[in-house]
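Colleagues,

For the teaching module next term, I've prepared a clean inverse folding example: a structure given as C-alpha cells, and then the sequence designed for it. I'd like students to try predicting residues themselves before seeing the answer, so please don't circulate the second half yet.
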C-alpha cells in the first residue's frame, strides 16, 4: 500500500527540480509502457520514495493493479512469516501483481536468504513480463557489496529491470 502521505499524489503535484526532470519524465513514460521496469537510485532526500509512490498512484489511476511495499515488508512477509501458507500466498501475490513497486531496498538487511528471495521474485516477474520498480539509496553498482553471497546475481537481475534512473 502506498504510504498515506503520498496516497493519491500524481505527477501534476510532484515537484521535481531541474536535476531530476529526466528521471521524472522516464517514470511518466513507464506508466504507459509496462514492458519495462526501473531501478531508481538517489541519495537520501532526493524524492525516490515520493517518485515511486506517485508512479504507483498513476498506475492505479490507469487501471493497473499495483502492489507497493518496502523491501523490509517484502522480506518480513516472505522470510519471517510464521505461517507457511501465508508466506506462499504473499509470494504468489507479489509474483502475480501486474505492477510491483519495492521501495527502500537499502533499508533491508540483504543477507543471502533475502537476496535469493528477491532474485527469485525478479526472475519470475521478468519471465511473466510483469513490470517491477525498485528504489534504493545505494547505486546499482554497490549491490554486489551490499548483498551477502548473491550480490552479482542480484545486480544482474536489477539491471535487467530496464531503466536505471538517478535522482540527485
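(Answer key — instructors only)
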Amino acid at each position: 500500500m502506498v504510504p498515506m502521505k503520498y496516497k493519491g499524489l500524481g505527477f501534476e503535484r510532484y515537484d521535481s527540480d531541474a536535476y531530476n526532470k529526466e528521471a521524472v519524465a522516464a517514470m511518466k513514460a513507464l506508466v504507459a509502457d509496462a514492458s519495462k521496469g526501473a531501478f531508481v537510485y538517489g541519495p537520501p532526500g532526493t524524492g525516490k520514495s515520493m517518485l515511486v509512490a506517485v508512479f504507483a498512484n498513476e498506475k492505479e489511476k490507469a487501471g493497473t493493479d499495483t502492489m507497493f511495499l518496502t523491501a523490509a515488508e517484502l522480506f518480513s512477509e516472505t522470510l519471517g512469516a510464521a505461517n507457511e501458507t501465508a508466506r506462499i500466498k504473499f509470494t504468489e501475490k507479489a509474483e502475480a501483481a501486474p505492477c510491483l513497486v519495492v521501495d527502500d531496498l537499502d533499508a533491508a538487511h540483504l543477507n543471502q536468504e533475502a537476496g535469493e528471495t528477491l532474485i527469485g521474485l525478479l526472475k519470475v516477474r521478468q519471465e511473466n513480463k510483469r513490470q517491477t520498480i525498485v528504489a534504493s539509496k545505494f547505486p546499482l553498482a554497490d549491490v554486489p557489496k551490499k548483498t551477502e553471497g548473491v550480490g552479482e546475481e542480484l545486480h544482474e537481475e536489477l539491471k535487467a529491470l530496464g531503466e536505471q534512473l538517478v535522482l540527485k
